[in-house]
Amino acid sequence: TESTYEINVVGEDTYDGDEKNPITEDEGLGSAMKLLDNLGISGFACTETEEAVRAWTGGSYGEDICKKPDGYRFQFGRKIDGIDVVYSTDIDTVDSIDTDNLTYKGGVDKAVISVDKFGVVSSTVYVYADEDTFDKEEVKLLSWDEMIKAAGESIAKYYKDHPTNYGTVEFNDVELAYVPCADESGNKYFVPTWIFSQNEYNEDYRCDMPLQRVYINAIDGNYIDIVDNMKKIGMYEETGRK
Questions:
Q1: Contact between residue 191 and residue 224 where contact means Cβ atoms under 8 Å apart
Q2: Residue that wins the pLDDT comparison between 43 and 100
Q3: Which of 1, 103, 140, 167 is most deeply buried (CB count within 10 A of its CB)?
């Protein structure tokens, strides 16, 4: 008996026939954005697109006999004025950060929406911050040269406070992003931050993973303690394990 199931395949040419997607990527993205708009969610931008593939299987061994594009799966994240908001959820591989005694509690602006020719098939939405409540403040960022000079001192201080097992650290990526922070009273705000990373390709996950990461405040050049900050904003809590 022939059966049907749906899978998501990324980065593979899975169908060689003449059939095309029943909807275009732009049409699918429009449907996904319309859902967010209907939910009253603003400030989200598409960060990743996957082609959803429908596969028919049959035969005594269940081998694939036909696959064809069937729609799209879109992932969205928060942006402020076109700049990414980073929530520090990919730090398990960072050498100078010990996450063994931490439990992730959530708090990420994220949406995953799947669309086919009939409309939205499935959606998962997490809203951490309401952009309508943002109070924007004019701030002056350090120039690149000023930031690099301050970063040299702050990064050295960071590794003094958070030792690494690596003999040398070679950052190969730097990104300007907004990082959610909180003061001692629990008031939350977003800080423009330079994120220095040493990334390396991970065969298991088939993507680059950070081995080193340091946050440098783009306003004053001081380092932001990643774990301490995440605990302040309620994203992580101590498990009590040692």
A1: yes
A2: 43
A3: 103
